[in-house]
Amino acid sequence: MNTESTNGTPNPKPKKSGKKSIKNILKQAAYEAENQEFIRIRGHLKEKLNPMRYEHTLGVSFTCISLAMRYGYDLNKAELAGLLHDCAKRYDESEIIKKCRNKGIELTENELNAPATIHAKLGAWMAENKYGITDPEILQAIACHTTGKPAMGLLDKILYVADYIEPRRNRAPLLTEMRRLAFTDLDEALYQIMKGILEYLNESGAYIDEMTRIAYEYYDAARACRLEEAASAETLGELKEEIQQYDTGKQNGKNRRKSTGRQKRRRYQNHRYP
User: Fold this and answer.
1) Runs of H (alpha helix) within the chain
2) Is-contact 118 96, C-beta < 8 A?
3) What is the pLDDT confidence band of residue 14, given thresholds at 50, 70 and 90?
4) How far is CA 267 from CA 170, 262, 274, in A?
5) Looking at residue 21, what is its pLDDT?
6) Is 13 a residue whose pLDDT tops 90?
7) Looking at 17-26, 45-54, 118-127, 152-161, which range is the least confident one?
8) I need a surface site. Which of 170, 196, 255, 265 has the fewest CB within 10 A?
């Protein structure tokens, strides 16, 4: 392609497509709007939560982002779930129950016996109706972050684990081990945290919410299946290795017999035709 004009001077570079420029402008505008929304939510939470609760919220949010990076989940959704998981904690337990009833949020007898878990339900409602969150994965993760549930999705697990291991936590048992485990085996970290919480509740004589127990039993069974599958895979691998060694040994034996036969024939020929 000729890049010079007829008088020998370089032609000006062709202008970029207007469509591409508009696309970039829209993309940048969406990015900036998204950042502004995060800033708005953080600012609102800072006003409504007490300082320690707000610091915990930031810690959970940042930990959710880190786990999302590790396990390939959407970073923005993970951050939103972390930011809003305790948005209802601006109220005390009696006020949370009252607001749930006023808004038609169903509470079971089990939940009323374990009121510390109920802020998750009101928090999911507030995330949708006060903060405009419509993504069902975010709302579900907030709703189950206190008790867990069977068949949790990836964001459910990320938020549940992040709530336990975030940097501001300092009294939960086995924190160092759980923080390390969370980034190597999320399912095992989830199980161990559930197990530790259930043991603590049993030892302290506290009431155990039914969903907390159901979730633990589900993941205890799931873990047993994983261990059984791993053991079967290991046994199968050992068996394959033994078969391979046996086959290799047989082949080596055949090769040795062939070699011995050739050597005998050569000796016979040498003896017969010196």
Assistant:
1) 18-48, 51-71, 75-84, 93-102, 109-113, 119-129, 136-143, 154-165, 175-182, 186-204, 210-272
2) yes
3) low
4) 82, 9, 10
5) 81
6) no
7) 17-26
8) 170
Among 30-39, 61-70, 206-215, 260-269, which is the least confidently predicted range? 260-269
* Contact in structure between 133 and 127 (CB atoms under 8 Å): yes
> 87, exposed or middle or buried, with CB in 10 Å at 0-12, 13-18, 19+?
buried
Q: How far apart are CA 101 and CA 96, in angstroms?
A: 9
Q: What is the DSSP letter of 172?
A: S
pTM of the model: 0.77
Confidence at 273, pLDDT banded by 50, 70, 90: very low
In this structure, the dihedral spanned by the alpha carbons of residues 101, 105, 107 and 111, taken in order and rounded to 10 degrees, is -110
Q: Look at residue 268 in the predicted model and tell me its pLDDT.
A: 47
Beta bridge partners of 4: 10
**Three-point CA angle 204, 58, 87, nearest 5°:** 70
How many whole angstroms separate alpha carbon 38 and alpha carbon 29? 14
> For residue 4, which phi and psi values (nearest 5 degrees)?
-110, 150
Mean pLDDT of 232-246: 73
Amino acid code (one letter) for 147:
T
CB 162 within 8 A of CB 64: yes
